[in-house]
Specification:
The complex is a heterodimer of chains A (454) and B (249).
Chain A lengths: L2 H13 L3 H22 L10 H13 L45 E6 L2 E2 L12 E5 L17 H9 L4 E5 L4 E12 L7 E2 L2 E6 L4 E10 L6 E10 L4 E9 L5 E10 L4 E8 L4 E10 L5 E10 L4 E10 L5 E11 L3 E10 L7 E11 L4 E10 L5 E9 L3 H9 L4 H17 L5 H19 L6
Parallel strand pairs in A: 1-5, 4-7, 5-8, 6-9, 7-9, 8-10, 9-11, 10-12, 11-13, 12-14, 13-15, 14-16, 15-17, 16-18, 17-19, 18-20
Antiparallel strand pairs in A: 1-2, 3-4
Helix pairs in contact in A: 2-3, 3-4, 5-6, 6-7
Chain B lengths: L1 E10 L2 E11 L4 E5 L6 H9 L5 E9 L2 E2 L5 H6 L2 E4 L6 E5 H15 L7 H14 L10 E2 L5 H15 L3 E5 L7 H14 L5 E5 L4 H5 L4 E6 L2 E6 L1 H10 L2 H7 L1
Parallel strand pairs in B: 3-10, 3-11, 6-9, 9-10
Antiparallel strand pairs in B: 1-2, 1-4, 4-5, 7-8, 11-12
Classes of the chains: A alpha/beta (454), B alpha/beta (249).
């Protein structure tokens, strides 16, 4: 057993005495789970009798949900969970939305899910050679395995309640850039029902594929969303995965992404976090195949009283694999933006090459930014570089721009933009990048008004 | 005309300028020389409005307008340009974007519409040619990865595009090889006109071989200790600063 697992075990042991405190929540979850079956009638896929979902519920009940005492959970606000309804809304409970309400389509084929359920009328599922997208209604394989790390417990909650989801299977050798766009729309108020976006993305050997995943709110902006995404990349495949979180101003968003890479596989995951009142993303990438490469690129802009928290773990299991992890976060107003980037190099993963560049920018005197690189190395012959900074905008840069006649607001916006630019520039889909740049510009405009610190 | 009267400036508890008075009529080029720590760069920064300097007494006016009451960006709008001794690198902001934003800010202040994209590029290309700069530089980040010489050329390029009323060049000649010095000097000379003034802050007289000043001033302990024509610079080159310092004591 490695030291890292030992650390986790200690954490689990520490969490154990807290279990009785957490139990009312899991009790309520179990009650809602049971009641849901009665309400939905004899529909096998939504019945709690579904064995897979039942197992997930049981595992969750045994383990409990994370608490803010957990080392990797201290930045996130878990209190709103007390007030949400965990069961998804009934079909009648979902708001009617029109295609025009959705962000402009970016991928070759679009699949829209409303409160976690596929909506054919809003989708445009153009067939792509070698790519099969099916509904997960028919009980696909579980997203989360039994040997789940305690940080992935929200995936169990998703598994227990999700009634639908996207299963994307990409055939060996398929070539489909910007292939599939998934749009998850939350419409229901958190106290009336939850939204469970769910994705299983399986990429065959040698394939080259792009997936775009977006999360938005329409109707209510106060949703409870709990998302679970699992990615498997077979040998020599190359995957670009874009994730854009723009949910409503009062939304609570939890997210769990797991990915496994085989030999020589390349996986880039780009995340842009803009929306939600409270957003927590947990990422766990396992480099299982030799010479596999992962790029974890994350941008987070929070203002007002938003909380954005990302915990991104990359586990080097095979030798000669590479990680490139970059984070750029801006926290304005009274927001709190946190990024915890952890790289674990397991025994035997010699030749590991990892780079971490984590940078946070404080743009409000009541704002908070937490940037934390972590390295755990259990083998020799590795190269792990990391750089982390958190601070205010550079006064010299600001004065330089002012001395050229730019007004203060423009100069500040420009510098914030420049701060994010190198990671945003990694988005290789021009139309998506344009949309994201526009959203970022909007967000930066807002936080510029709160810049009394400079 | 730039008129500085009895200017006292402190940085923290440290008094740097101690009653500096200077008049620079429109159309003239004045060189400010002096030993290290005499207050040359402080003067340049105070004129541009850099934070961190406290003006404890005195006044600065440009064509009768109180400069000290203005924010740095307002001074730029009034036609003040500071050429930095150490130009700042700003990765992520394009050179061409900054040039355009700066030019449009100035035009807006004069009540002119935004510059036409084609007109702008024509203008920038012409000035770049003069500064012997490669076009690829336009798409690069502001001063990002530039050599010392490239940074100084970039300062002069910005100056040429913005056409300031008063250009204050803070040791623009430092760190330049002789070819780059000639290019920079040529850029400054291009700007010379009856309706503009230039303040050259420099350690060495070398630059003044190429940009011939109307007047030379020597700053000692935060005051003008001696003024003269360009022969004063030649004398300083020969004799050093000690005799001026002794005279000032």
């Amino acid at each position: 057993m490695s030291a890292s697992q030992a650390t986790k075990a200690t954490q689990a042991a520490k969490a154990a005495p807290a279990a009785p405190l957490a139990s009312p929540l899991t009790t309520r979850i179990a009650e809602e789970f049971a009641a849901q079956g009665a309400a939905h009638g004899p529909n096998a896929s939504t019945m709690p009798s579904d064995a897979r979902r039942q197992r997930a519920l049981q595992a969750l009940t045994e383990r409990g949900l994370p608490t803010s005492r957990g080392e990797n959970w201290k930045y996130v606000n878990l209190r709103p969970l007390e007030k949400v309804r965990f069961a998804p809304p009934s079909a009648e409970g979902r708001s009617a939305i029109a295609a025009a309400d959705l962000p402009a389509a970016v991928g070759k084929s679009r699949y829209v899910f409303v409160d976690g359920v596929f909506d054919a009328a809003l989708s445009s599922p153009t067939a792509q050679a070698g790519v099969v997208v099916t509904s997960m209604k028919a009980g696909a394989a579980p997203v989360a395995g039994a040997a789940l790390s305690p940080d992935l417990r929200f995936a169990l909650l998703n598994e227990a309640f999700a009634t639908d989801g996207a299963l994307i299977e990409v055939a060996r050798g398929a070539d489909c850039e910007t292939c599939v766009e998934l749009v998850f729309v939350a419409t229901t108020e958190a106290k009336a029902g939850a939204s469970y976006p769910r994705v299983s993305f399986k990429v065959g050997a040698n394939a080259r594929v792009g997936l775009i995943e977006r999360h938005v709110s329409i109707g209510s902006d106060a949703n409870f969303i709990n998302c679970a995404v699992d990615v498997e990349v077979a040998r020599d495949a190359n995957v670009h995965h874009y994730r854009v979180q723009q949910t409503g101003a009062r939304a609570i968003w939890f997210d769990t992404l797991t990915a496994k890479l085989a030999e020589n596989a390349k996986y880039q995951v780009h995340t842009v976090n803009l929306g939600a009142l409270s957003a927590r993303s947990t990422v766990h990438v396992q480099l299982i195949g030799e010479r596999s490469e992962v790029g974890v690129y994350s941008v987070s802009v929070g203002g007002k009283n938003q909380v954005h928290d990302t915990f991104a773990l990359v586990e080097h299991i095979a030798p000669n694999a590479r990680t490139d992890q970059s984070f750029r976060g801006i926290s304005g107003g009274r927001a709190r933006v946190a990024f915890n980037g952890k790289i674990v190099v397991r025994k035997g993963a010699h030749g590991t090459d990892s780079r971490q560049s984590l940078r946070g920018l404080l743009a409000g005197k009541d704002a908070e930014i937490d940037v934390r690189p972590q390295l755990e190395i259990y083998t020799d012959d590795v190269r792990c570089n990391h750089g982390a900074t958190a601070g205010k905008l550079d006064d010299n840069m600001l004065f330089y721009l002012l001395s050229r006649g730019l007004d203060r607001e423009t100069a500040l916006r420009l510098l914030k933009w420049a701060f994010l630019e190198d990671v945003v520039a990694k988005i290789e889909v021009p139309e998506l990048r344009r949309q994201i740049e526009q959203s970022l510009a909007g967000q930066l405009n807002e936080s510029a008004a709160l810049n009394e610190v400079f | 005309m730039l008129k500085i009267t009895n200017l006292h400036v402190a940085v923290g508890d440290n008094k740097v300028l101690n009653g500096l008075s200077l008049e620079i009529p429109t159309g003239e080029v004045h060189a400010i020389m002096g030993p290290n720590g005499s207050g040359k760069s402080t003067l340049a920064h105070v004129l541009a409005g850099r934070p961190g300097y406290t003006v404890t007494a005195g006044s600065v006016t440009l064509d009768g307008r109180d400069l000290l009451a203005l924010e740095p960006e307002e001074r730029a709008h009034e036609g003040v340009f500071l050429g930095f001794q150490y130009p700042v690198e700003i990765p992520g902001v394009n050179n061409v974007y900054l040039l355009k934003a700066a030019l449009n800010a100035a035009r807006k202040h004069r009540g002119l519409p935004e510059v036409d994209a084609f007109e702008f590029l024509t203008l920038v290309r012409e000035k770049m040619k003069l500064m012997k700069m490669d076009e690829s530089f336009l798409s690069r980040g502001v001063n990002e990865g530039f050599s010392g010489g490239e940074k100084k050329r970039n300062e002069i390029l910005q100056m040429l595009v913005l056409e300031p009323k008063l250009a204050v060049l803070d040791e623009t000649d430092s760190g330049l090889d002789i070819d780059a010095l000639k290019v920079v000097a040529n850029g400054v000379n291009t700007l010379r006109s009856p309706d503009r003034s230039v303040v050259l802050v420099t350690h060495y007289q070398r630059l003044l071989d190429y940009v011939v000043p109307d007047h030379v001033h020597v700053l000692v302990r935060g005051r003008i200790a001696r003024s003269g024509d360009r022969t004063l610079a030649l004398e300083l080159e020969k004799r050093g600063y000690d005799w001026v310092i002794e005279e000032a004591a």
